[in-house]
Description:
The protein is mainly α. The protein has three helices and no strands. Helix content is 57%, strand content 0%. The longest helix is centred in the N-terminal third of the chain and has 20 residues, at 6-25. The mean pLDDT is 88.
Amino acid sequence: MEKLRFNTMIAALMEYSNYLAKIKDAGCVSPADWDEALKTLLLLLAPTAPHIDEEIWSRLGLPYSIHNQPWPQMGRGAG
């Protein structure tokens, strides 16, 4: 279990979450891009918090089961 480095994964997701909060507060993101960013965060968090992610996914009215969705792909200009 120690080699799976969950703490590193959670730290990276916290950084992403903090970044999303900053751009939303600054008004730098369109509603469509915000929805996509939120879905990406949920998909990345799903292996660690499967039950709460499934609940949030469902409440957002997204397709059945977050765990049946494809893994996020890098967008244009990324990487």
